[in-house]
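FAQ: What does a ligand-bound record look like?

Like this one, built around magnesium ion:
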Amino acid sequence: LVRLAGVHKLYGRGDNRVRALDGVDVGFEAGKFTAIMGPSGSGKSTLLQCAAGLDRIDAGQVLLDGAPLHELSERALTELRREHMGFVFQSFNLIPALTARQNVELPLRLAEREIDAAAIDRGLAQVGLAERGGHRPGELSGGQQQRVAIARALVARPKVVFADEPTGALDSRTAREVLALLRGVVEEHGQTVVMVTHDPVAASYSQRVVFLADGKVTGELFEPTA
Amino acid sequence: LVRLAGVHKLYGRGDNRVRALDGVDVGFEAGKFTAIMGPSGSGKSTLLQCAAGLDRIDAGQVLLDGAPLHELSERALTELRREHMGFVFQSFNLIPALTARQNVELPLRLAEREIDAAAIDRGLAQVGLAERGGHRPGELSGGQQQRVAIARALVARPKVVFADEPTGALDSRTAREVLALLRGVVEEHGQTVVMVTHDPVAASYSQRVVFLADGKVTGELFEPTA
Ligand SMILES: Nc1ncnc2c1ncn2[C@@H]1O[C@H](COP(=O)(O)OP(=O)(O)OP(=O)(O)O)[C@@H](O)[C@H]1O
Ligand SMILES: Nc1ncnc2c1ncn2[C@@H]1O[C@H](COP(=O)(O)OP(=O)(O)OP(=O)(O)O)[C@@H](O)[C@H]1O
Ligand SMILES: [Mg+2]
Ligand SMILES: [Mg+2]
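The answer part, i.e. the structure of the complex:
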């Protein structure tokens, strides 16, 4: 479904130049749950952003169903993301002025799709926030905000969900509920999930773990157990 | 050093009213390392904000060395926080327009204390970011930003450090380095650390764990092991 071939990504210029991705070759199959692990600063978020077409790459190719993303116009790329991708950002990126419910509805509004109030209720309930739909992000705890971001990424049933440390702000019991939810969309709806995590328990919910260090893939593990 | 006696904290009005703290009695002794654990939304961040005088309480008292915080003026409270407290926020709260180095210097500037460039270098090196002092928060990964926030909270050697999930964005190796640093300021400099965490490994670095649920202290554990 998504493939990165020889991808390089550089930030900054001259002295401050940082090579975030250093020739990454990795593929993510449709209907599979993959985890990405690696030290802080190793390029995990950058890999996710490039795979979703949110960041321009400097060399190599990113292919979605065989078609190279970098040949698409900005408009076509945005269209594609709206139709087929869900994203949980490491810093949540919720809209402060909107309520939790409105934040969850946003992907459907942007894709000009019908908003089914019952589906939004279910989405909030699945992450344990049925009662809090009317609160804005500033009125929610860190973990509650993260769960709103997860509900938002899932609501439009995207082909592929990119999740950047989706359980980072959650206690272990709440985290297991969210991980079971992500595993569920893979097993029951055949969606694809690519999740960055530092937590070995979270990684154990995936079917494959890819390890990253200094912008390179250094290994992978199939059917991990915690 | 810091005591909360019968503390209640409510947010919102009418239907949306949320009771974040529901009669909390807890003390933090000088020179000790205490962890606070509990489910997402149970009141951990609120407890930390109220203990540091960053949030007004609705009932009860917060005492610092026996003196009630709520009797102090806003100015005196700010003065006290600048002199004696360090804070690592759950969402880092770095100033985007300042470099990592300038963010770390900020507590010293605000307290109108002399800035020792070597101390700032040491602070950044202790969290593994000696090379990144010239980068702004937007040019750093999630875990790197969190480490800048930790260096900032420690630089002025405050009597008490409040840290809200300081290893939430870190891989296990980097997290252990940060936890050893926090344990070090307690054992070597006699400072007090109060840390909210979801991670049992992080809690095992503390000398006591306080458990919170639905805004109430439900138990405590001394000398926890992972
Ligand atoms: N401004 C606000 N308005 C309404 N409710 C609020 C506000 N701030 C916090 N709350 C609520 O108070 C409760 C406690 O929040 P707090 O941030 O202390 O939780 P927490 O234990 O830190 O959770 P987490 O582990 O998710 O960070 C939560 O239910 C939260 O939604
Ligand atoms: N705009 C930027 N300018 C300069 N360097 C950057 C920029 N964005 C990211 N980087 C650097 O690229 C490297 C990879 O960053 P990335 O955010 O992908 O790491 P990560 O693996 O997600 O780390 P973490 O676990 O801390 O979130 C880091 O060294 C980071 O500082
Ligand atoms: Mg990251
Ligand atoms: Mg919190």
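Follow-up question: can I read anything off the structure? Yes, for example: The beta strands of chain B are 2-11, 18-28, 33-37, 59-64, 67-68, 85-88, 160-164, 192-196, 208-213, 216-222.
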